Amino acid sequence: MTPQELRAFCLSFNAAEEDFPFSPEISVFKVRGKLFALSFLDARPLKANLKCDPEEAIRLRREHEGLIVPGWHMNKRHWNTVTVDGDLPDRLVRELIEDSYDLVVAGLPRADRLRLDRP
Fold first, then answer.
1. For the chain, where are the E strands, in sequence order?
2. Name one Pfam family in it (predicted).
């Protein structure tokens, strides 16, 4: 997955926005103001911080050692850093991004979730 593909996929979700609260180099992808992905798109290798169910995070780290690690500068229980342009299949990377988005949406107030469901 290229940086352009990563950005496009993150922005393809309903109400997803790109923001730069930390620095102009770090893309932060949010839904209703809540972070679901973070990446320095110019970095090589390309990596993204993604939210993950804690038990799933442990399994993924074990199965993809070195490519999925505890989230850099994040709560290590709930966030993984995923090497996006490495040996992981693009399909898996897309699933991890979508799971991160879904977890964040699930934690939004009911009114915000309902607004996301409207066309």
1. 16-19, 26-31, 34-40, 47-51, 68-70, 79-83
2. YjbR
